[in-house]
Write a structure and sequence with these properties.
Strand content: under 5%
Number of helices: 2
Structural class: mainly alpha
Number of domains: 1
Radius of gyration: 13 Å
Largest sheet: none
Oligomer: single chain
Shape: elongated
Length: 59
Amino acid sequence: MKRSGSRPLQFVGVVAAAMAVVGSVAFGWEFGGPTGTVPFVLGVGFVVVAVGWTVLRGA
């Protein structure tokens, strides 16, 4: 897998990781588990941002 040199995309990754840790510790979220729609929606949102950024950078 190729590493991104894009600062904004790296920032999105750090924010996603931080939200995952805080959500897991503070709210009991289990990403990949049946704990509700909030972790799912957040995950889909970050995927959309990452894919959108990659596609737009390639255009």
